[in-house]
Structures
1.
Amino acid sequence: MRVRLTLDDEAHDFAAYYARVRGLGLGAAISELIRKAQAAPAPKPDIRIGPNGLPMFPPTGRRITSAMVKKIEAEEYDPKRYR
């Protein structure tokens, strides 16, 4: 199937290099890369079950404080939107 693609310069350079190293045409190289991406297992999120049985995301090293939440609420709250 013929398709016209617009690629970023970086993506084109990578695909062209991949094609050259593997001895393929650019279209065959892009097809092979797409098939490899399809076959790769999807990453699973690191969700743990907490002591209370609820799912928890892994800690990121940052704590969210009530002051942070109040600040965001004050910045984003627009009473006109909730009438």
2.
Amino acid sequence: MCETADPEALLLRRADREMIRQALAELPVEFREVIVLREFEQLSYKEIAKVAEIPVGTVMSRLARGRQQLQQCLAARLGEEPNSGL
């Protein structure tokens, strides 16, 4: 698929990626690790548990808490109220 080289769209995507990267960097390492392994590396919960040497239940808990903290950080950067339903 060929994307248009719209300079404004490219700039916005770059700014979004940078904001997400910075927000991820602010997370505690135990949350950042499971989020990166799940969302970027596409590992299963079982695979993450093996890599991180933690129980699957802990993976699930850390993902939920990490996603919540990431959402709050991004909402704060955007000056919005975080969505408490997620």
3.
Amino acid sequence: MRSVVGRFLEHSRVFWFANGGADEVYIGSADWMTRNLKNRIEVVAPVSDRNAKRYLRDVLLDTYLTDNTKARELQPDGRYTPVLTRSEPFNSQDYFIGRPGSD
């Protein structure tokens, strides 16, 4: 699991399960922290539109998974650690801000 928290505190929550080639994509408000699950309702909904699923997987998730400046990965012990890379710095949220049609 990877988390990217930057300028947009209410960041995208997209879940992709390859499911043996039958991709399942979900979007939602779910911030699955214990304090949230005990005190409010969090919602996740499946995405059925093929084009929307493709965009979420191939553009949105791919961009966030490329992030190496704000990204953190969940470790087995529950800690989040920075994503280490030798490539050029890439900030996914800055990328989306600069895309045409983002204003």
